[in-house]
Amino acid sequence: MKRFVGILAFVFLFLLSYGQDQLQISGNFEINSQTYKPDSIINAPNVAEKLLSNIYGQIYISYKHFRAGLRYEAYQNALLGYDRRYNGKGIANRFVSYESQFLTLTLGNFYDQFGNGLVLRAFEDRALGYDNAFDGAHLKLKPVKGIQIKALIGRQRFFWSYGPGIVRAVDGEMNFNQLLDIKTGPELTMGGSFVSRYQPDENPIYKLPENVAAWAGRINVNYKGFALNFEQAYKINDPSADNMYIYKPGLATYMSVSYSKTGFGLVFTANRYDNFSFRSDRNATSNNLFINSVPTIVPIHAYSLETIYPYAVHPTNEMGGSAEIFVKFKRKSFLGGKYGTLLSLDFVHVRSIQKTPTFDGTGYTSRFFMPGKTVFYQEIGAKLEKKISRKIKLKAKYLNLRYNKDIVQGLVGYGTIYANIGILDLTYRFTYTKALRTELQMLHTKQDMGSWAMIFAEYSVSPHWYFTVYDQYNYGNPHVEKRVHYYDLSVTYVHEGSRISIGYGRHREGIICVGGVCRNMPASNGFTFSVSTTF
Q1: Distance CA 116, CA 228 (A)
Q2: pLDDT band at residue 8, thresholds of 50, 70 and 90?
Q3: Which H/E stretch holds residue 188?
Q4: Is the pLDDT of residue 25 over 70?
Q5: What is the reported pLDDT for 219?
Q6: Which of 35, 134, 255, 475 fits as disulfide partner to 154, beta carbons 3.0 to 4.6 Å?
Q7: What is the dihedral of CA 72, 76, 81, 86, to 10 degrees?
């Protein structure tokens, strides 16, 4: 690592001396800190350090066809909710690459995704504490217009080291319209992927396959307002901690069909994941060392009370479908009014797959179109967006949720929660630069922690200042002593590429999910401070 940094520094000084006219330098820095004090009412723990910080710094150097970069990380110590194995500091990511019209070659750390990610997806998400970057070599070829081939080999990041498995992969994609120079009619793209993981068998009980292969095929069609995205993947038997070391092959299917025209849109999605957890360490758990990332069909929720019950995708056992319709009523129509109205309706249903137990080591059999008996998640929602006047903009949202907390969060004793959520989001613009945005949110349920109410207000003086205050009140908690207020006040200053924010408040215990990937967030009470800048 020190040798790599030394070489990068030498190259930087050389280019700075002899190639300033074509040398480009960019990067970003980020610091997130929080103080902690114990709060028995919300179960906020006593943190010995009192102040915890996550620090990141990235720098990229580009010169003609060459690019290099590194990322420094320091967790001193890591914020609550992040794995303690991140504690420490050092160069967590470094790479050099060469790019031409024909090929791109990268050595070091890299990220990539094949298709929808069914067999391979490497990415970083700091909010989740997730980073499964590869360390090795990555090659991308474009031999002719319309054809792209990618190949890679490497091991995955595991906190400050690397997982035991070696991943080898290749992906090819062909755009027939570009290849054949077809400028009219449907646009057709087809692709295929192959991924193999090697990990020695050191298990004293089971005879485990050392080489595990997965492959996938996909097709994308676009014609006028119609779009189809279909991908299916197969994985040979892969006994692991995720499937209780059974010898059953895996199958994953994802499909999205949409149609849109002016003022109207319709989207259908469906998935089925059967024993399709794929990691570079068969013994890994939690969010560690995933080679792939199967996409969720549950929409990402942005409002606070919606996120009390987020959904985590189940790659070993899940099937479901969703439908969403968008209608924009024209301006000066009966339903559109003076400025037009946008209305959307959605329905999501996710449940288990059907399983018939076997006693031959494969664990079970499953019929493809047969759903299981357990409902994981269901959502019925409606959203309205309307500009009332030149100064007032309104958003209103309603959700009816069915949430199996035991299954989704891996808990016992909570069962299925039925909740109704209502949200009113109102923005009033005083002047071109000054605005007040307020949210009123209600979550009603008779299970779990009971009902919640929230009020939020943000006053902005663009482009620099943002003043925010909110209060979440768990007024329906069955334990009277836990009917507490979770309040927060913050001030944010933005200048060009820099952002500074400071706040104070209580934060409830829960989980954070993005795209079906989640992490636990303990309750906390204290000041938060963050600063970030890009250059």
Answers
A1: 13
A2: low
A3: strand 187-198
A4: yes
A5: 98
A6: 134
A7: 50
CA distances (Å), origin 273, targets 211, 239, 251: 21, 16, 6
Q: What are phi and psi of 253, to 5 degrees?
A: -135, 135
How far is Cα 260 from Cα 226, in angstroms, rounded to an integer?
Answer: 7
Cα separation, 147 vs 172, in Å, equals 7
What is the identity of the amino acid at 203?
Answer: N
Residue 119 has what DSSP assignment?
S
Question: Residues 404, 375: contact at Cβ < 8 Å?
Answer: yes
Q: Which of 270, 269, 277 is nearest to 250 (CA)?
A: 277
Place of tokens 């001193």: 76
- Position 179 pLDDT exceeds 70: yes
- Give the number of residues written for the chain: 535
Nearest to 473 by CA among 481, 483, 463, 464: 483
User: What sign has the CA pseudo-torsion 80, 85, 86, 90?
Assistant: positive
Distance CA 498, CA 463 (A): 12
Token pair for residue 300? 């990402």
Cα-based distances in Å from 386 to 177, 338, 342, 380, 394: 39, 10, 6, 21, 5
Mean local confidence (pLDDT), 33-59 = 95
Q: How many angstroms separate the CA atoms of 258 and 260, rounded?
A: 7
Q: Which residues 6+ apart lie within 8 Å of 13 measured at CB? A: none
Residue found under tokens 């909010």:
127
pLDDT of residue 112: 98
* Chain Cα centroid distance, residue 154: 23
Residue entry with tokens 């922690």 = 449
- Ranges of H-type helices in 257-369: none
Return phi, psi of residue 481, to 5°: -65, -15
Q: Are 427 and 390 in contact (CB under 8 A)?
A: no
Q: pLDDT tens across 95-151, in order?
A: 999 999 999 999 999 999 999 999 999 999 999 999 999 999 999 999 999 999 999
Give the per-residue pLDDT at 49. Answer: 93
DSSP 85: G
pLDDT of residue 12: 58
- Cβ atoms 320, 297 nearer than 8 A: yes
Q: What is the mean pLDDT of residues 161-168?
A: 97
d(CA 506, CA 472): 9
- Spatial distance between the Cα atoms of 522 and 52, rounded to a whole number of angstroms: 14
Read off the pLDDT of residues 99-110 as tens digits, 9 standing for 90 and up: 999 999 999 999
313 and 294 Cβ atoms separated by less than 8 Å: yes
Cβ burial of 100 (10 Å; 0-12, 13-18, 19+) is exposed
* Structural tokens at position 214: 């997965």
